[in-house]
Amino acid sequence: MDADKQANIIDGKAFAARLRGRIGAEVARLKAEHDLTPGLAVVLVGEDPASAVYVRNKGIQTREAGMNSFEHKLPADTKAEDLLALIARLNADPAVHGILVQLPLPDHLDSDLVINAIDPAKDVDGFTILNVGRLGTGQSAMVPCTPLGCLMMLNDRLGDLSGLNAVVVGRSNIVGKPMAQLLLGANATVTIAHSRTRDLAAVCRNADIVVAAVGRPEMIKGDWIKPGATVIDVGINRVERDGKSRLVGDVDFAGAVGHAGAITPVPGGVGPMTIACLLANTLTACCRINGLADPATSV
Ligand SMILES: NC(=O)C1=CN([C@@H]2O[C@H](COP(=O)(O)OP(=O)(O)OC[C@H]3O[C@@H](n4cnc5c(N)ncnc54)[C@H](OP(=O)(O)O)[C@@H]3O)[C@@H](O)[C@H]2O)C=CC1
Ligand SMILES: Nc1nc(=O)c2c([nH]1)NC[C@@H]1CN(c3ccc(C(=O)N[C@@H](CCC(=O)O)C(=O)O)cc3)C=[N+]21
Question: Which sites bind NADP(+) (predicted)?
Fold first, then answer.
């Protein structure tokens, strides 16, 4: 790429607004034709700053799309049995079609146990072992919202991903691993990098697609990006800059913008798409639970 070339900035905020518009139209149709209103329950235990960022936007957007939003805020010292009892109630509640338990949970709670207590039909995060297994075996699943949003932006930008070299940096259950599964499902050649990877710069330089989900501010440098590559920055890191608190990604945006063909900004990239995909999954869950065909917004 020429030195003066700048990457296209992928506008996740606008993309998400379009998706939410389509979801809103489907919700209205569901109401008119079937007298159904999708409902999303969000369970927040304690006060985690990253979770607070997420929950703030989510409740508003759920209601804006015409869905019901049920918020359950529990104290940090909530007992496992009380949290499990709440999940059992939500599983049984016909007005609730999606259940999201904000992660991370306080240390005394076993998040695997809690997540797997969610009815897989209502598991709009796609974190239960049943949905993880379905995704890994190519069966119809609830797909984790963040990777789903990333895939939508990649498909929009690149069309067919077949044979492209994709590097996912990070191997968490909520982002890195499901992202790798989705890319594999889309026929990319997938490398998963993590904290033990040797020469991450060289691994990234080989990639047509870099998805960064590390949680380290601006760790991925501009000259690690192959000219013209597509860069999806999942990282949400709060840092102090010039005496102000700001959000930055895992990619050095200013450095990468001169190398990449396209790049997502932080904020305004993956984050808004994650919430839009949560709404899409809630709508899909509502249709499936009620024996209706998948909505046009499902994948
Ligand atoms: N925009 C959105 O919608 C969302 C954003 N996020 C953000 O994405 C980021 C990642 O989140 P999450 O996946 O939950 O994070 P985790 O902390 O669970 O996972 C981080 C991963 O990065 C790897 N890693 C750590 N250091 C390095 C390094 N120096 N080189 C290479 N790999 C490294 C870790 O490797 P190892 O496994 O070896 O320890 C791990 O696999 C965070 O900033 C988070 O806030 C998360 C969810 C949604
Ligand atoms: N069960 C569960 N599921 C999750 O999907 C989940 C979770 N737990 N725990 C926390 C992480 C983090 N996460 C974010 C989603 C959107 C934004 C987001 O909307 N970000 C805006 C910035 C908002 C601002 O300006 O503060 C943006 O990037 O533009 C951020 C973070 C979902 N997560």
Answer: 170-172, 236
